[in-house]
Each structure stands twice: as structure tokens, then as C-alpha cells.
Structure prediction request, 318 residues.
Amino acid sequence: MSDSGEEKQSWWQRLSGGLKKTSASIGDAVADLVVKRRLDQAMLDDIEEVLIRADLGLDCAAAIAASLGQGRYDKSIAAEEVKAVLAAEVEKILLPVAKPLVIDKVKPFVVLVVGVNGSGKTTTIGKLAARARAEHHSVMLAAGDTFRAAAIDQLKIWGRRSSASVVARAPGSDAAGLTFEALTQARKENLDLLLVDTAGRLQNKAVLMDELEKIVRVMKKVDPSAPHAVLLVLDATVGQNALSQVAVFREVAGVTGLVMTKLDGTARGGILVAIAAKYGLPVHFIGVGESIADLAPFSAKEFARAIAGIDESPAEAN
Prediction:
């Protein structure tokens, strides 16, 4: 799932604009610390504290502060230099996890989408469907979050918007049975992509685990290789809670990749860096708003420059 060059520029504007709160709490805050001061250990400690408060994590904050200190003790350092070092260090952490979601030749390519209620899961499925349809893939959506009537209705609306077929049942229906029906139908129609929504109630992990295991079990009856990807949708505004969500869903659902949403509504976008450093899971997409165009494939360089508060896009910088 890719982008054209023209979209890339407008995406940069959306990304850097959406991450303004995060860049103020990270890049601008760090840059402000060094104005009219010479760099010493006290300043590095202050910088590290700012980075920890911005949810980058202890190890990551320490590494960035150490990198800033290299060869610069007792010297004046410009704000732009600080931002450049910050962006370079963050990019280094993110590069190994910045991987596109590749829809393989297997038909249908089955994506199980998991995450807590309110993370933007159903909306993300709709946006992914729209992107896939724009790339001429045939798509089916399965409304597997059968506990919430609103989620079922929302998925139907996205199906109409993106011209994707939708398999849904009445609220309270068996999610595994619905998934079995959807996958059987998608195979019969030789569709390219099946996106399966799921319930996200974390209050009782055992119930969640049982339900997801049952969904996977019935999938495998139809296609032993399914699901081909398990995407965890995370809401950036929850900050440190996102780390525990990754831990739970990795254990419960065997997560293969991440999508982070709502980066435009928070100063805590640094949590993505902490998650990358701790878990090393591929990050496929990030979202900075409500429209379809506000979800795009993840680029380590773009994200790093945006949260450091560097104004120009990577393409302009090269």
C-alpha cells in the first residue's frame, strides 16, 4: 500500500501539522533548554527529563542525551543542531520497524485487526479498505466486533464509502461464526483482502483471549495459513498505557504489526518511539486525523523529523 509523490508532500504537511503538540513537547522543549547556555551535564539531565516526560522511554531518552553530549561539552549549541541530532537518533530507533503492510499473493489476504475499544480500530479498518480499493484490490470487511452495534453500523458505512463488501450480523452474534462465513465467502469470490474487526474489551483478558483464539481457530478451518497479518491499533493519546496494550495483545493475539492513530490529538507521540525500542514490532501505518488521507504508511525519517520540529520535509532536505 503506497503513495504518489504529490500525496507525499501534502502528507508531510498533515504529519508535521498533526504532530505539532508532540514536537513542542520534544523538539522545541529540548531546543529551548540550550538557548544561551553552554552544554554541561546539568543541561543533559534536563534534556533527558524532557524526553522521558514526552514518553520516549528511559533508555531512548538516555541514548539521545548521550548523543547530544558527544564532543559538545562546554560549547554553545544551536537549536537547529539539537533538533537534527534528536531527529537522527529517533530515526535510528524507528528505521528497523518502519515496514509496509504487503498484501501477498494468497487470496484472500486475511488481516485480523485488534485493539481496545476507542482506539480507532473500526475507522482504521475503513481507511485501510479505502486505500486498498484505491490500489484496485477487491476488499471485504467482516464486522467481528459483534458486541457494539455502533461498530457494526460504522463498518457498513465505510463499506459503502469504499465500495467494499461487508459481512455483518445482528449485535450479540457469534464473532467466530461470522468470521467463518466471511472468509468462506471471500474465498468463493476470490477477493484480494479480508479485514476482520474484533471486540476490544480488556477488562477480562481471559474472555478476550478465548474469543480471539476461537476466531483464529475457525479461520484455520477454511485456510490453515490465516490470518496472514494481525494488526494492533493503538491510540497515541493514552501514552504509557499503549505499552501495556502491546504486551497484552501480543500475548493474546500474536500481533504482527502496529497502526498508531490520533497522533494529532496528543503531545505524547513519543510513545511510538518507546514501543519501537521495547518491542521491535513493525509499524505499518500512522494516523493524524479523521479523513482517509490522514492515515499513511509509516516513514521513520518523516516521523523523526516531524517530532523533532524540523519544518522542511525529508525530500526538501535532501
Summary: The chain has 13 helices and eight strands. The beta strands are 109-114, 139-142, 165-167, 193-196, 229-235, 257-261, 283-287, 295-297.
